[in-house]
Amino acid sequence: MKESMRLKDGKVVVSDEKNIIAIYPYRDADGAKVNNKTKNLFFLVCSVSGIDKLKLSKSGIVAI
């Protein structure tokens, strides 16, 4: 984003020590792209109400 924006309650901001990585559900930051220098991946999966945690666990996703 080129400009700041005020987020509504309940929005998730993912960051590292220096930068914002993603603002869910708006967008991922440019620095979150996977490229030929990528060494590690971390997947953040956000569920929605009504999805059974057992179904998520069968998909390999750890439900918290």
Protein structure class:
mainly beta
Count the strands? 3
| Low-pLDDT runs | none
Number of domains: 1
Number of helices: 1
* Biggest beta sheet summary: 3 strands, antiparallel
Cα gyration radius (Å): 14 Å
Intertermini distance: 30 Å
The residue-averaged pLDDT reads 77
Spatial strand order of the main sheet: 1-2-3
Oligomeric state: single chain
Portion in beta strands:
15-25%
Shape: flat
**Amount of helix:** under 10%
Order of helices and strands: EEEH
What does this protein look like?
The protein is built from 1 helix and 3 strands. With 64 residues, the chain is mainly beta. Helix content is 9%, strand content 17%. The chain has a 3-stranded antiparallel β-sheet, with no helix packed on it. It has one domain. The longest helix has 6 residues. The protein is flat. The N and C termini lie far apart (30 Å).
Brief summary:
By secondary structure, this protein is mainly beta.
Characteristic terms for this protein:
64 residues; three-stranded antiparallel β-sheet; mainly beta; flat; 1 helix
